[in-house]
Design goal:
By secondary structure, the chain is of the alpha+beta class. It has two domains: 297 residues, 3-Layer(aba) Sandwich (Aminopeptidase), CATH 3.40.630.10; 119 residues, Alpha-Beta Plaits (2-Layer Sandwich). It contains twelve helices and 18 strands. The strands form four sheets. Strands 1-2-6-3-7-16-8-15 form an eight-stranded mixed beta sheet. A four-stranded antiparallel beta sheet has the order 4-5-18-17, with no helix packed on it. Strand 17 and strand 18 form a beta hairpin. It is elongated, with a radius of gyration of 25 Å. The chain starts with a helix and ends in a 5-residue tail after the last helix.
């Protein structure tokens, strides 16, 4: 064997070894994991501190954090990560707050990113006043995603308190821009720049309940704008009207036929335009959201929408014989990738094994979350609910019931440890 072939063979052996090493840390033996005294104590501890966890959850939810304005909440996490004892705590170039906990496995050990999103759908001036009735807490954002954010702190605190050494590395991330027009800006930056090439597994904690998201619902979002000269509603009557064109297109969209399986959806969420009742608008626009679990169905819907957008423009201009001719601008404002992974993949099997150990029913589903990106890249990823019972997410009437919410905390801890492994030293 010549030197070149020997080198190739050696590189192949290293690659195989690294792959086996990484996968070896992901375990489904939760009973075995719980035989570790430190893990068992940590499992009980995170339940004991649940009342404190809930209080911090409220504190976080009361810090306003609209998408692209997460700085104040981010600063809270920067301080808390440092207080807990995470290392290399920092705020990256887009505002993600990061804290690291190194494992004992060295540079080839798995690296899990455990994330929750900082941003909410609520404006900066939204009244964030807590109303408590027994175990029910009413507060915008209390579940989505103050619950997930709080579990980052509870898990980090528990691991530090019990001095649990993991084989793999855990990187805790309170990330920006998951909601609305954020378009996953925070996690895109993690994978494309800040932690590029380092992430082997990814978990986002988002919302309430005890479900697990294993597949990514993709979406395309557009801002559609019709523009013209505008004018007086009486004096300039006879020219094309941008608002009428918007109406034509929305009417067409409302008649789209999409399959129930694979589930494919569309919705016009925002409409803008006009200056007064007696004016022909110079501009009108709307925002459209289209989603599917199947990239082919999403592509079909995308093409259908664009054909109809052009048709609505042509029809409005033709109606008025091109008087005050309109123009059309279709701007992509959001593009979340779709993706699936094998349901018997190690990360999903670990989550299922933890569910079984804790007597929690497997509720696996597809959704649109920060985990979309890693799933689309082929990186093992799931989104887990944070526990408790939530209602009215994304509304001013959002509420969360803390009954048995410790189950979410305990489950998240075990899933994390099942993926990174616990050092036997």
């Amino acid at each position: 064997m010549n030197i070149k072939l020997k080198r190739i063979f050696a590189l192949l052996l290293i690659a195989v070894f690294q792959t086996v090493f990484i996968q070896a840390q992901v375990t489904t033996d939760i009973d075995g994991l719980m035989k570790n005294a430190k893990v068992k104590n940590a499992f009980e501890f995170i339940k004991q501190i649940e009342p404190e966890t809930v209080e911090e959850q409220i504190k976080i939810a009361e810090i306003p954090a609209p998408t692209f304005e997460e700085q104040k909440r981010g600063e809270y996490f920067r301080k808390r990560f440092a207080e807990i004892g995470l290392k290399n705590v920092r705020v990256d170039g887009v505002g993600n707050v990061i804290g690291e906990r190194a494992g004992t496995g060295g540079k080839d050990a798995p690296t899990l990113v455990l994330a929750a999103h900082l941003d909410t759908v609520f404006a900066m001036d939204t009244l964030l006043k807590t109303v408590r009735t027994g175990t029910v807490i009413k507060l915008p954002g209390i579940g989505d995603d103050a619950r997930g954010l709080t579990l980052l702190l509870a898990i980090a605190r528990t691991l530090e308190k019990h001095n649990i050494e993991t084989v793999g590395n855990i990187i805790f991330v309170a990330n920006v821009a998951e909601e609305g027009l954020g378009d996953l800006k925070g996690v895109r930056h993690l994978f494309n720049e800040e932690l590029k090439g380092k992430i082997t597994h990814f978990i986002s904690i988002d919302g309430t309940g005890l479900g697990v998201t294993t597949g990514a619902v993709g979406s395309k979002r557009y801002r559609v704008t019709f523009s013209g000269p505008g004018g007086h509603s009486y004096g300039a009557f006879g020219m094309a009207n941008p608002i009428h064109a918007v109406g034509r297109l929305i009417a067409k969209i409302s008649e789209f036929q999409t399959p129930l399986e694979p589930k494919t959806t569309f919705s016009v969420g925002v409409i803008r335009g006009g200056t007064s009742v007696n004016s022909i608008a110079a501009e009108a626009s709307f925002d459209l959201d289209m989603r599917s679990v199947d990239p082919k169905e999403l592509e079909k819907l995308d093409k259908l929408f664009k054909l109809n957008a052009r048709a609505a423009l042509d029809e409005e201009n033709a109606r008025w014989k091109d008087q005050g001719k309109l123009t059309l601008d279709v701007k992509l404002i959001g593009d979340r990738p779709t993706g699936t992974q094998l349901q018997n993949s190690p990360i999903i099997k670990t989550a299922s094994s933890v569910n079984k150990f804790m007597k929690i029913e497997d509720k696996f589903a597809f959704a649109s979350t920060d985990s979309n990106l890693p799933i689309s890249l082929g990186i093992p990823a799931i989104m887990i609910d944070g526990g408790g019972i939530g209602k009215g997410a994304h509304s001013l009437g959002e509420q969360w019931d803390s009954t048995d919410s410790h189950l979410g905390s305990q489950r998240a801890l075990l899933i994390v440890l099942g993926i990174v492994g616990v050092s036997q030293n």
